[in-house]
Amino acid sequence: MTVLHQPRHKNKTLAALLAFLLGGLGAQRLYLRGWRDPWLWAHLACLPAASLVAQLAPQADGFYKLLPIIVSGLVGFLEALIIGVTPDDKWDARHNADSGQQSNTHWPVAVVLVASMMIGAGGLIATLSRLFDLIYTGGAYG
């Protein structure tokens, strides 16, 4: 007796939402590709990297100590945008080829895209401005 295992359908809206909310920890990578995804481990490596920076440079500004986590979070927002704007047919070809279902995303993914753009762009601008402040003025403006 043979049991056929049909792969689960990967929801594009859920993947974009996971990238928006928990993208800094790689939740969308875990949902889409599982534990063997190397980019999941790159996201998770931000936590020990931040700890390592804090241990090696305890006198450094807190921004530098959190920089690996901040960068991973910004990448998560970018991944939410990429996932959200992927056409449904290309999404299904990549993630749902054997699921037997077709994606049909509607307005919820647009809400995730707008939120990702707003918070991601704001976070990127804030990160760059703080980084330049610390590099060029030694933190004179904050």
UniProtKB/TrEMBL annotation:
Keyword Transmembrane helix in record: yes
Localisation: Membrane
Listed InterPro entries: TM2
Transmembrane segments: 66-86, 106-128
Keyword annotations: Membrane, Transmembrane, Transmembrane helix
Membrane topology value: Multi-pass membrane protein
Domain TM2 per the UniProt entry, residue ranges: 9-42
Coiled coil (UniProt feature): none
Top-rank lineage group of the source organism: Bacteria
GO cellular component: membrane
Record's protein name: NINE protein
